[in-house]
Design brief:
- The structure is a single chain.
- With 352 residues, the chain is an all-alpha fold.
- It has helices at residues 2-33, 39-52, 64-71, 76-81, 84-108, 114-130, 137-168, 174-214, 232-248, 251-260, 266-284, 292-305, 314-349.
- Helix 5 (84-108) packs antiparallel against helix 8.
- The relative contact order is 0.22.
Length: 352
């Protein structure tokens, strides 16, 4: 059993790595497309801030997004009541459903949401054994609502920042403005990468905690309402995995985000990254596993739209939106199929 738990934790960290790989574009697309940093330096910069976003946990910061993913989508007690093998099969199927969808959308060059892929995976893997009674509608509705709200908030903040910043620097020469914002974009890229680590690494912390508390750790008090402790080694492992994934970068999605959606100057990149990063940090405070992909896409569109509707390639934006719409159901279907296959295999080999 211990070996199975260790293997499943490694699968969870593999998803975290793929999350960083898939979502690297969120952190670096704007700073690369504006040529402020070279791609290799940009991914190193982003990965560093992905990792150090773990530090607030040492100062007592709450892991609210981890709590939402761990016990806000599926009733943990119902899952645990089905036995250790059920916990392992559900989490394995959920992770594989999310991984398959992430890899497909990476191959297609579409910036889909890893957060929603994992949520969809948990939903799809839990339905066959638990039914709809095993799901938590309020938690799922909160996640679904922000498929719409997070890009809208990012778009509004991005466009407002662009308008306000352009007004502030209106009396300066374009060359001077460009020089300023090439430096400031280092700060905004750091803010967004930090927010990406804060939000996305916590999702996998929640899943690993479900694995541990549902199998080898018998501390039932750990999962009581308002109390969701995550071991610090899990925190560090998740941040390291997502940082390493970012280091490898998903270059297909970088092209979509940084070049195909709209053309950005350093001032626009600064506004998009800052608007997106502030949105993610604010929503993470409320425990909402928001999509960093949705948020930065909305912010980029908001910045581009200040130049007029023709500045945004709406055909590309439409393809991205369809990927958002299908992410939860697609990952859920894949996870449900994987659960049924896994349960059938376990039954054949006689594993209890």
């Amino acid at each position: 059993m211990l070996i199975l738990v260790i293997l499943l934790v490694l699968v969870a960290l593999a998803f975290d790595f793929i999350n960083g790989f898939h979502d690297a574009a969120n952190s670096i697309a704007t700073v690369v497309s504006t040529r402020v940093l070279s791609p290799l330096v940009a991914v190193a910069w982003a990965a560093f801030f992905n990792f150090i976003s773990a530090m607030p946990v040492l100062w007592g910061a709450e892991l609210k997004v981890a709590a939402t993913m761990g016990k806000g989508i599926v009733h943990f007690e119902q899952l645990k009541a089905g036995g250790i093998s059920l916990v392992l099969m559900v989490v394995f199927a959920a992770l594989m459903g999310a991984i398959v969808w992430n890899l497909l959308t990476w191959w297609w060059g579409l910036p889909s949401s890893s957060s929603h892929a994992l949520a969809g995976g948990m939903i799809g893997a839990s339905l066959p054994p638990l039914g709809f009674a095993g799901l938590i509608p309020s938690g799922i509705l909160k996640i679904v609502a922000f498929i719409v709200l997070s890009p809208l908030i990012g778009m509004v903040l991005g466009s407002l920042m662009m308008v306000a910043t352009a007004w502030i620097v209106r009396k300066n020469t374009p060359a001077r403005v460009d020089r300023w914002f090439r430096r400031l974009q280092l700060v905004s890229a750091a803010i967004f990468s930090y927010s990406h680590g804060t939000n996305d690494a916590q999702k996998v912390m929640g899943i690993i905690s479900v694995i541990l508390y549902g199998t080898i750790w018998a501390d039932r008090a750990a999962m009581t309402p308002g109390h969701f402790p995550v071991p610090f080694w899990v925190v560090l492992s998740c941040h390291a995995a997502i940082g390493l994934g970012t280091m490898f970068g998903g270059w297909r999605i970088v092209r979509t985000m940084g070049h195909n959606l709209t053309k950005l100057q350093p001032i626009g990149g600064f506004c998009a990254e800052t608007g997106g990063g502030v949105t993610i940090l604010a929503l993470a405070h409320f425990g909402i596993p928001v999509s960093t992909t949705h948020t930065i896409t909305g912010a980029i569109v908001g910045v581009g739209s200040t130049k007029g509707t023709r500045a945004v390639r709406w055909g590309v934006a439409g393809r991205i939106i369809w990927a958002w719409v299908f992410t939860i159901p697609a990952a859920a279907i894949v996870a449900g199929v994987i659960f049924l296959v896994t349960r059938a295999i376990v039954g054949v080999v006689g594993v209890g």
